[in-house]
Amino acid sequence: MAASPFSLDGRIAVVTGGGLGIGRSISLEFARAGADVVVASRKLEHLEAVVAEIKALGRRSFAMAVDVRQEEGVKELVERAVRDLGRLDVMVNNAGASFRAKPEDISPNGWNAVIGINLNGVFFGCKWAGRQMLGQGRGVIINISSIAGVYGSTMMPHYGAAKAAVINFTRTLGMAWGRQGIRVNCVAPGPIETEGYLDVLHKTNPDAKKTYDAVANRVGMGRWGRVEEIAYPCVFLASDASSFMTGETIIVDGGAAPHLGEG
After folding, report:
1. What are the tens digits of pLDDT across the range 25-54?
2. Which residues are known catalytic residues?
3. What is the full DSSP assignment across 153-179?
4. What is the pTM of this model?
5. In order of start, what are the domains of the chain with their CATH numbers?
């Protein structure tokens, strides 16, 4: 019986920001689909539990502390994955962070911090994964953007700008590397119930429940999304089921209205 085109059996994947939320879910769903998974983030404390869950599924895994804003760390992540597991088939650039602020209140340091992790981190991940994959003649890169990069965000304009650049960069790499066996695609989530998103919401909003409900009401499906609802499209993009897709961005937002980005 032929293997499912959605199978990731035998694939080696790296997921940044893999300790919590969307990154954790992507890592676990990749393992369930058959992949060995390397997880990375700035802190190891959350990664060790994810590694244990991946190994319990019968897959190989290890964790590595990496600040994606530092190119050398990302380079070492890719090199160790290849050294320890043999090659690199899938790179997921998921690590991200932000804070809520009006455009006029963002300091240069605040702007640079958000651009650093959400855009520069994707660049470094694509650069070093891409170099490895070009040598192999095959590979898949998945970048995680946001609907803030599609619609903008009046309260996170620095984040929206970075995520818009990720979408454009994905399109560019899809054109640049498509004939060399490298597929580069992007997923742009809408409001997803992650620890980080909800933490920002509660820390910066005096009536977080009201805001939470208001966001849900602006979604076509009337609710926030779940982390696995982002992980499943990533499995699709990592697999041969999406073999004729590159440079594309899949919006997964529950039918959100464009003004959702205003939150």
Report:
1. 999 999 999 999 999 999 999 899 999 999
2. 159
3. -TT-HHHHHHHHHHHHHHHHHHHHHGG
4. 0.95
5. 12-255 (3.40.50.720)
